[in-house]
Amino acid sequence: MTALTTPREGIPRVLSTPADFTAAASALASGQGPLAIDTERASGFRYDDRAFLVQIRRRDVGTFLLDPEGARPEFTAALAPVLNGQDWIIHAAPSDLPSLAWLGLYPGTLFDTELAGRLAGFDHVNLAAMIEMLFDVHLAKGHGAEDWSQRPLPADWLAYAALDVELLLELGDTMAEILDGQGKLDWASQEFEYIRRGHASITGPTESTWRAMKGVSSLTRPEQLAVARELWMTRESIAVADDRAVSRILPTKVLIEVARTLPRTSRDLARVKGFPARRRSAVRFWGEVIDRALGSDPRTWPKRERPPRGLPSRQAWANEYPESYERFSTARELIDDLSAEVEIPTENILRPATLRAVAWAATAGREVRSTLEVPDLLRAHEARDWQIELTAPILTETLF
Prior knowledge:
The protein is α/β, with parallel strands linked by helices and 400 residues long. It has three domains: 2-199, Ribonuclease H-like superfamily/Ribonuclease H (Nucleotidyltransferase, domain 5), CATH 3.30.420; 210-300, DNA polymerase, domain 1, CATH 1.10.150; 314-399, DNA polymerase, domain 1. 52% of the residues lie in helices and 10% in strands. α4 (113-119) packs parallel to α7, α14 (322-342) packs across α16 (352-362) and α14 crosses α18 (385-399). One of its GO terms (biological process) is nucleobase-containing compound metabolic process. InterPro entries: 3'-5'_exonuclease_dom, Exo_C, HRDC-like_sf, HRDC_dom, HRDC_dom_sf, RNase_D-like, RNaseH-like_sf, RNaseH_sf.
């Protein structure tokens, strides 16, 4: 096995000026074929998930490492005319496409090598594992979780970043051949287009709200919600001002626990699991935030929002609608069997949420009156044509 610890053409220079971007765009425009693209971000350190390094490789011109942070408008002006509308190859595209869209970059067509691996039935679909299995090459890895916003970037980090696209073009070609040989290339193309369309309208980060915090639904009393809101707003203000990840200010899990327990003394606050109790300034600061929330007018405290009535829990479904649940379970088992037969994970054949929604609608919900409506219902839940072709016969057989 060959160990690849540095790019074959050497570590590229990091390009960070408008002149650099213009030169890179000109070189990339002269290349041939699709573009292999990757990003390095710093969401564990910075406020958002923007790209701090963009790696691009194209045949005949090699690899480029681009640092957009100091001149994002100029980066977009130079690179968008060359990259947009082209064929892109990305590994795990949903993780990279948002930050690229924030830079005004959008593919014309997409090939996601990680998803290709899933559809091809690979047991391991991380980039290093796929490269090793298909090309007998061991990639040097290990810097994905670093703080990519720091400057300068160490040489071994830059080697790691460049290696992420070093063999990505070849991987895309090989996976296309494998999928074609399995009769799955059209299925994969539909999946890739679904991902591309889903990111085509993104222009910036999604606006966050305090009610979107994980765990906030466990808070039931208005005073708990008031404290959660005040803690979130304060944390958000600090995070934006300092460009710092919210997890490094007050982790959401800790924030929710503080709101749930409503500690009224410094000692009680310091006892909350995960709270930075050793920093006296933190105990004092967040204690004042809690006091401010609880000291506000109760008439302004938020009320618990109950989600719209939808599907029952599985337990309630099984207990209250046993016949309906049995049909759902049968359909699920048959789709699991189909998964094994075609060697595609069940969740890629049909999202579990879609299966539950369709099964409920066709049985206890009585929203579907005919088997002829099943394909349209699947399509309404964003199932792709290949998924409908595979699963509609199973659903019509088991749910009616």
